[in-house]
TrEMBL record:
Its cofactor is Mg(2+). Substrate binds at R70, E122. Keywords: Magnesium, Metal-binding. The lineage of its organism: Bacteria, Pseudomonadati, Pseudomonadota, Alphaproteobacteria, Rhodobacterales. Residues 9-216 form the HpcH/HpaI aldolase/citrate lyase domain. One of its GO terms (molecular function) is magnesium ion binding. This is (3S)-malyl-CoA thioesterase. The keyword Metal-binding applies. Mg(2+) binds at E122, D148. It holds the Pfam family HpcH_HpaI. PANTHER family: CITRATE LYASE SUBUNIT BETA, LYASE BETA SUBUNIT, PUTATIVE (AFU_ORTHOLOGUE AFUA_4G13030)-RELATED. Belongs to the HpcH/HpaI aldolase family. It comes from Meinhardsimonia xiamenensis. GO terms for biological process: oxaloacetate metabolic process.
Length: 288
């Protein structure tokens, strides 16, 4: 699976300092894992966490899950050593926090020549430069950092996320304009399943590929919310079949359930089926 065809419904942060959580993650049904060296790791623990994450990457054992390492910013005392260690360990993907302009990705790209780059979108400057950041040739995707963003904006954490909507949309627009993945921010109240579901549904409605998570209890809900439903899959199949039948009769438009189906709808239908297939393939790997 290529980076853009992998599912990113559930993207779980794991503190790089927490050996038990890392071990547990090998059996969790998260589509992707972020091994964190930044905010989840205290300054005292950072060198040991870096060494642990390097060792964990060499050991493997994570099946088809995408492994992303969030390093410290390159303007911190740890960032450069993190990046060099991840290059040495052959990390497949590296996530840079608080990206504010593409030049920061250039600096990272030079340090990790083998890795796909991911950018945390979590500062006002970063959001305003989202299009230029998304255009970076090595970028795989955005991860929204809604806690840092709320801090810098000075906005309230509201269930409807109204103060963040413009930023979420700007990042999505930029990501989609350049064919990048866009993963929503975390829901902090990790034992509040209904609150998580509501926020995940909002993210899916906006167009996010998935949601970042902080606790295993959050995985099942977002896997469900960000997967095509059985009804969506069945509708997609009928739309494709009806459009192909219409085309065979020389028509450019079909009608399904009283709604028109044109080639653009068929593109969406095919994307739905391909996402469902990618999820099924990954879930087969989870079951091994
Ligand atoms: C939030 C937690 C501190 C809660 O931890 P804990 O009290 O240990 O939870 P539980 O006892 O319920 O844990 C049950 C078992 O699950 C394992 N566990 C817990 N969390 C994880 C995890 N993230 N990944 C894998 N496994 C996990 C425990 O080890 C228990 O296992 P077992 O003993 O075998 O039963 C904790 O969940 C936590 O630290 N979460 C991650 C926090 C984090 O990564 N924060 C930084 C990322 S969010 C961020 O930075 C936001 C962004 O930048 C922004 O700006 O918005
Ligand atoms: Mg942050």
């Amino acid at each position: 699976m290529t980076a853009t065809h992998r599912p990113y419904r559930s993207v779980l942060y794991i503190p790089g300092s927490n050996a038990r959580a890392i071990e547990k993650a090998r059996g969790l049904k998260a589509d992707a894992l972020i091994l964190d060296l930044e905010d989840a790791v205290s300054p005292d623990e950072k060198p040991a966490a870096r060494a642990r994450v390097s060792a964990v990457l060499s050991e493997g054992g994570f099946g088809g899950r995408t492994l992303i390492v969030r390093i410290n910013g390159l303007d911190t005392e740890w960032g450069r050593a993190d990046a060099e260690a991840m290059a040495q360990a052959g990390a497949e993907a590296v996530l840079l926090p608080k990206v504010s302009c593409p030049a920061e990705l250039d600096a990272l790209a030079a340090l990790v020549p083998q890795a796909a780059l991911w950018a945390m979108m979590e500062t006002p400057a970063g959001v305003l430069n989202a299009a230029a950041i998304a255009a970076h040739p090595r970028l795989a995707g955005f991860v929204l950092g809604t806690n840092d963003l709320a801090k810098d904006l000075g906005c309230l954490h509201r269930p409807d996320r109204l103060p963040l909507i413009t930023s979420l949309e700007l990042c999505l627009l930029a990501a989609r304009a350049h064919g990048r993945i866009c993963v929503d921010g975390v829901y902090n109240a990790f034992r509040d399943t209904e609150g998580l579901r509501a926020e995940a549904e909002q993210g899916r409605a906006l167009g996010m590929d998935g949601k970042t998570l902080i606790h295993p209890a959050q995985i099942d809900v977002v896997n469900e919310v960000f997967a095509p439903t059985a009804e969506e899959i069945e509708l997609a199949r009928r739309q494709i079949a009806a459009f192909e039948a219409a085309q065979a009769e020389g028509k450019g438009v079909a009608v399904v359930d009283g709604r028109i189906v044109e080639n653009l709808h068929v593109e969406t239908a095919r994307a739905t089926l391909s996402k469902a297939d990618a999820i099924a393939a990954l879930e087969t790997e989870f079951a091994r």
